[in-house]
Amino acid sequence: MRSIIKKFLPVSVLELVRNCLDASKRSVEIPNAYFHPWRKETRQQLVKYKDIHKNQRCFILGNGPSLKNTDLTRLKNEVTFGMNRIYLAYPDMGFPTTYYVSVNDLVIEQSAQDIQNLSQPRFVSWRGGKKWLQPEDDLFFLYTTYTEPNFAKDIRNRIWESATVTYVALQIAFYMGFKEVILIGVDHNFETKGKANTTIVSQGDDPNHFHPEYFGKGFRWQLPDLEKSEIGYKMARTTFEKTGRKIMDATIGGKLTIFEKIEFDDCFPQRPNN
Fold first, then answer.
1. Nearest Cα residue to 12 out of 3, 4, 2, 20
2. Which of 30, 45, 122, 209 is the most buried (most CB within 10 A)?
3. What is the pTM of this model?
4. What is the DSSP-derived secondary structure letter of residue 208?
5. Which residue range(s) make up the domain with 204?
C-alpha cells in the first residue's frame, strides 16, 4: 500500500505528509529536547559561543577524497570544523580541528568511543548522542531534525540537518559569528550509487572519503541525499549573504555549485619578501 501511495502522489505532497508525521513525532520529543538535564546544560553553555568568532574566518572540512590532495597542514593556525570521522586525518595534519560535529545516528553509534575520547568542543545530535555518549565538558547535544527545513540562527533551538552534517556545521559557524566560511573536502560526489538515505554495509575499503577505513568494511552508513543537501546549502548562502557574510568553496575538484569557487592556495597569500 505504501509503495502504491508513493507512486501516485506528487513529491511535494509526499514531503508535506512526511513533515506532518515528523512534526507529530517531534511534539512528543520536544519536552526532553528542551528540558532534559543534558539539553538544559547544553543550551546554557552554548551562550558563551554566541559571536565568539565575530568577523573572523573559518574552514569547514568535508570528508571527500579531495581532502587527500589538500595541504591540511596550512590550517594549523586557522579555526577549523571537522566532522564525523575526520579524526582519521589528524595524524597527517599534525593537529586536531578546533571544533568537531557529528549528527548521524549510525556514525555516532559506531564511533562513540572515538568521539568521547576527543578533547576539542564537540557538537553532536541529541537524538543519537543521548543513546551512545556520556555528558562531559565541551560535549554539546544539539536538537537536530530530519524534516521541516530551516536555517537555525540560534543553535540552542531546533536545527534542520538537510541530509548533511556540513549544513549543521554552517549553522554553528553562523551562530559563532564567522564572517567568512571556506569549505574544503566537500566533493558533493559519491562513487557508491543507490537510493538516497538507504542504509548499507560497506564491503571493503571506502572509495567515497579521504581514508579507506572511513566507512570501512562492516561499517553501516546511509547513502547520500545530494538534492536535499543542496536545499540546505542554498538556505545557508542566502542567510549568510543577508547579513553581509559569505560562504566560499575551495574544494579541489568539487562538484558543488552553490557557493563561489575559490582556489585553496589563494586562501594563503604569499607574504612579500623583506
1. 20
2. 209
3. 0.91
4. S
5. 36-266
